[in-house]
Amino acid sequence: MIFGTFDGVHDGHRHLFAEAKRHGDHLIAVVAPDEVVHDLKGHSPDMHAEDRIEHLTRESHVDEAVLGDAESGTWQVIRRHRPHVVVVGYDQNELRAELEARLGEFPWFLEVHAATAHKPESHHTAVLRKKKLSDQAFPRPGDVS
């Protein structure tokens, strides 16, 4: 199981998918609801959760994409799907710490692993979002509106 916003899948996400899939035979991607994204990141996602889920279902390593909990920290999605491994992104330190602190609440064997980074200077969602906003504000010569 992996968690994220997945607001436009990029190569950094695909690296996470492939790395997570090596830990098991069925990868579930948990997509943060729109309201949770806004609360966590201070802005709404570019795509609604249903569209983000749809995009993930087309990814080769993702077997299932589901909507995450409406309230952060309740972990109902983990209880419902009972994964044996959760792989967090290299930059999801708070998520990893919270999950590791609460492992005793899950009555089955559950491991938490952190994925390695894949070109974070160019393949991190925040970098790509900033570039997209910059490109919209300052179109390059020859770009058609």
Describe it for me?
The strands form two sheets. Strands 1-2-3 form a three-stranded parallel beta sheet, covered by helices on one side. It has a two-stranded parallel sheet with strand order 4-5. The chain has 145 residues and is an alpha/beta fold. The protein has a single domain, classed as Rossmann fold. About 4% of the residues have low confidence.
CATH superfamily: HUPs
Q: How many strands appear in the DSSP assignment?
A: 5
Shape: globular
Low-confidence stretches: 131-136
Strand content: 5-15%
Please identify the structural class as seen in this structure.
alpha/beta
Instruction: Please give the CATH class.
Output: Alpha Beta
CATH topology: Rossmann fold
What count of structural domains? 1
Order of helices and strands: EHEHHEHEHEH
Please report the distance between the alpha carbons of the first and last residues. Answer: 39 Å
**Gyration radius, in Å:** 16 Å
| Strand order in the largest sheet | 1-2-3
Q: In CATH terms, what is the architecture?
A: 3-Layer(aba) Sandwich
Quickly count the helices: 6
| Largest β-sheet summary | 3 strands, parallel
